[in-house]
Design a protein that fits this description.
With 371 residues, the chain is an alpha/beta fold. The protein has three domains: 74 residues; 186 residues, Rossmann fold; 71 residues, Arc Repressor Mutant, subunit A (Orthogonal Bundle). It has 17 helices and eleven strands. Strands 1-2-6-5-4-3-7-8-9 form a nine-stranded mixed β-sheet, sandwiched between helices.
Length: 371
Amino acid sequence: MDSRIYQIALAATRGISCRSYRELLKINPDPAAFFEMSHGELQEVFTKHQSIIEQIESRAMMERVKEEIEWIDKHGIRVLFAGNDEYPQRLNRSECADTPVILYAKGDCDFNMMRSVAIVGTRRATEYGRDMTARLVEQLVGEGVMVVSGLAYGIDAAAHRASLANGLTTVGVLGHGLDQIYPSQNRSLAKEMVQNGGALITEYMSQTRISPTYFPARNRIIAAMCDATVVVEASEKGGALITAGIANSYQRDVFAVPGRVFDSYSKGCNNLIANNRANILRNMDDLFYILGWDKHTNAKGIEGRQQEIFAMLTAEEQKIYDILAETPNLTIEEIETRCSLSLPKIANALLGMELKNAIKCLPGKTYHCSN
């Protein structure tokens, strides 16, 4: 049977949260295994959760999942599973245990680009906010950065449009299924994003009703997909501040654009800065400095730099470099879980790579490729 059916069916089982799904994959990385377990084995895994056991044994969700697979194949939707290479690997980091194991994507975008920045803000953007968003996105041209936002009114839409205008890859994270676009006024924008190398992505199946509770939940995906979150404008409460808070909890850098003290849609940003929950962002030079990113590394420059680095690295260093290229900002412990080397060997290799300027050690003792 199509492996996607089991992957989706386990996620659709009531009572299995994103966090518990990830724990189950530590028991067995193949979701199909849970549908093949005996009653006794299921009781050992799910203990007192009788409802989950009944759902799995009856396979009650299978018909709905098969309908979803048919719809997915008909509309060219990709199913991204946490165990697959196409899945956004930044979501697999240990601090992101509540992120979804299953994602649905429309578009051919590579979600594992070396650099990724979220740009979010109020739905009631001012002229200042829209102008700052356009200026900030323009400063990312030629830097190999993917721009992620929520396809909402205001700053989100401004970030997507500015990305398209400047030829940047941009991804919209939705709080509903891919069979609809909300707000409907952004349908043409969403279509243009997909047509120009970007994508739409969501954790929800088609036919999922739109609910206000889903939009704050999708913010954790925005935060997890990115190396940093930029808040351009925000009131004292709102979705952008939720995203910033989640990004902080995921140990990602947060930046906020300052505004005038008495402007209502600058209060959120000013508070983030004042409370040391965000770095001040005057322009993208501030972000590049804090993240340790080199500037002016377009696609050709990155390739040339990689070729130079590859010639200098030992086999062990090359293995670690490949891991960091795929999943930036890892601690030494996280690197250990992704390779067969011992901690002392990894430590020696990291030191050698730093001396060769192949990687950088960032605040929090995480490592990132220098390019």
